[in-house]
Every structure is written in C-alpha cells, then in structure tokens.
C-alpha cells in the first residue's frame, strides 16, 4: 500500500504539488505522466521520502522503497560495484573493506544484479568511464539491488538512444514480471511506457488531471491531457 493524502510541496515560493491525493495499486505498474514542470519528479521524491511534504502525508506499508533519480545520480568517485552496493550497506563502501562474511553476501547480490543489467565486465570502472546507457543500467542496478517492494523510476530512459532505451524498458518489465514490485514510472517516452502500464496518473501544474486505468485514458482524460498524450502516443 502506498498512498498520498492532500500532499502539498512548496519549493522556494512556488507550490509544486497542490493537494495530491491518490493510492497506488499494489503490484501494478503505474505510469506517471504529464507536461514538463508538472511536478512528477517532485512527487516521486516525496513518495520516496527524500523530500518532505509541507502538508499532507505519505503512507506506505513498507520502508522498502527505491527511487531511480532522473539522470541516474551515480556517485562519480566510486566504482560501479560500490555504487550498487551503497543502499545495501547504508553507504559503508568500498565493499572491499567490509568484514569478510558481509562482503561475500554483498558482492554476490551486487554481481547478480550487475550481470542482469549486462555490466559484469564493468564492476570496477568509475561511472565516468561508462557510456550513457551503461550508466543508466548501473543506476537501475542500484535501485533494484535491495529488491524493493516499491520501485520509483524517474525518467529511466531520458537522454538515451532508442536501443539503450529499449534495453532499459525491457529490464524493467522483466524485473516487474519476476516479483511484481509496486512500480511507478515517469517517462517522456509514452510509446514505450503506456503499453506496459496498467494504471496512469497524470499531473499538470501540481494537480492530478487523470487517475485511473490506462485503457480508459483515451475516453476520460481531460482535454488538456488528451492533447498532451495524443501528440506523442498513437492509440491504434
Ligand atoms: N529545488 C527546487 N526549487 C525550486 N523549484 C523547483 C525545485 N525543483 C523543481 N522545481 C520546480 O518545480 C516544478 C516541478 O518540477 P518537477 O517536479 O521536476 O516537474 P516534472 O518532473 O514534472 O518535469 C518546476 O516548475 C520546477 O522548476
Ligand atoms: Mg522530472
């Protein structure tokens, strides 16, 4: 269970989230869509707890929540494996300095997910030595390594070429099918995102303009959203 009730978030002087109330469907993929600047990234940060609400509340049945930040946000000065291990060991990296018993466990977990995202050969590299697609896969590995019950993904394919974007989206779908984390994905790439999403939450100007099943979006969405979606998504 993940819900937000009357959530307001004010950054600077500006109200970014303006009274958001919704409950996300357990074990489903929800697409978080809407015009740029509408508050999507802010909502994901508030749901994950990295940014507090000014008023209202976020409730969740679990602390097992991961957020993949827009642009990935890897730590540039530590290796790929240490980046991925970071949430597992609450930042006590490098992994090589952990006590032996813990180190083995952590390395196994990291290697498993890094192999999964195709980065087994790159574990000792620094993020700056990787391509954009590889960096994003490393960020995804970091978000997935704890096997979170709630997975929040902020534009996981932003800035990537079509091939790298497809690889990332396929990885997300595969992981989702494997253990069904409650997944919320924000993306500009509606042609890739909407087909894999059962539910849609659309934000515009800090307000919810659609909250429901993806299959009903075409009929029920407010005109402003319809315009936004139909520009970028072929319904046929
Ligand atoms: N730290 C901040 N301080 C002030 N304004 C911010 C900050 N972060 C985001 N904003 C503003 O909040 C609005 C919503 O941003 P964001 O949540 O990133 O939207 P989206 O992800 O939908 O594009 C934008 O107008 C943005 O300029
Ligand atoms: Mg954003």
What features would you describe in this structure?
- The chain has eight helices and nine strands.
- With 236 residues, the chain is an alpha/beta fold.
- The chain folds into two domains: 1-64 and 150-236, P-loop containing nucleotide triphosphate hydrolases (Rossmann fold, 3-Layer(aba) Sandwich), CATH 3.40.50.300; 74-147, no CATH class.
- Strands 5-6-7-3-8-9 form a six-stranded mixed beta sheet, sandwiched between helices. The protein has a three-stranded antiparallel beta sheet with strand order 2-1-4, with helices on one face.
- Strand 6 (150-154), helix 5 (162-179) and strand 7 form a beta-alpha-beta unit.
- 42% of the residues are buried.
- The structure holds adenosine-5'-diphosphate (ADP) and magnesium ion.
- Residues 40-41, 70 line the site of magnesium ion.
Ligands bound to this protein structure? adenosine-5'-diphosphate, magnesium ion
Q: What is the helix tally? A: 8
Look at the structure and name the CATH superfamily of the largest domain.
Answer: P-loop containing nucleotide triphosphate hydrolases
pLDDT averaged over residues: 92
- Counting DSSP E segments of at least 2 residues, the number of strands comes to 9
Quick tags:
236 residues; alpha/beta; Rossmann fold; 9 strands; 25% strand; globular; binds adenosine-5'-diphosphate; binds magnesium ion
Secondary structure elements and pairings:
Layout: E1 2-11, E2 14-24, E3 29-33, H1 40-48, E4 55-60, E5 65-68, H2 80-85, H3 100-116, H4 132-144, E6 150-154, H5 162-179, E7 182-186, H6 190-193, E8 199-204, E9 207-213, H7 217-220, H8 223-232
Parallel strand pairs: 3-7, 3-8, 5-6, 6-7
Antiparallel strand pairs: 1-2, 1-4, 8-9
Helix pairs in contact: 3-4
């Amino acid at each position: 269970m993940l819900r937000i009730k009357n959530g307001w978030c004010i950054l600077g002087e500006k109200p970014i989230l303006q009274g958001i109330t919704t409950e996300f469907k357990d074990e489903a993929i929800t697409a978080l869509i809407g015009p740029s600047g509408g508050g999507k990234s802010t909502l994901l940060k508030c749901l994950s707890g990295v940014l507090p609400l000014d008023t209202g509340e976020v409730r969740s049945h679990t602390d097992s929540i991961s957020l993949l930040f827009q642009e990935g946000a890897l730590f540039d000065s530590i290796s790929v494996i240490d980046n991925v291990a970071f949430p597992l060991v609450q930042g006590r990296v490098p992994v090589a300095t952990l006590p032996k018993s813990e180190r083995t466990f952590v390395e196994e977990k990291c290697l498993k997910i890094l192999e999964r995202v195709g980065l087994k050969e790159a574990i000792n590299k620094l993020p700056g030595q990787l391509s954009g697609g590889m960096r994003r896969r490393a960020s995804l590995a970091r978000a997935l390594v704890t096997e979170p019950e709630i997975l929040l993904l902020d534009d996981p394919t932003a800035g990537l070429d079509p091939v790298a974007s497809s690889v990332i989206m396929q990885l997300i779908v595969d992981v989702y099918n494997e253990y069904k984390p409650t997944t919320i994905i924000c993306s500009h790439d509606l042609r890739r995102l909407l087909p894999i999403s059962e539910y849609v939450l659309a934000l515009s100007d800090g307000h919810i303009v659609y909250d429901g099943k993806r299959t009903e979006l075409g009929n029920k969405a407010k005109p402003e959203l319809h315009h936004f979606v139909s520009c970028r998504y072929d319904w046929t």
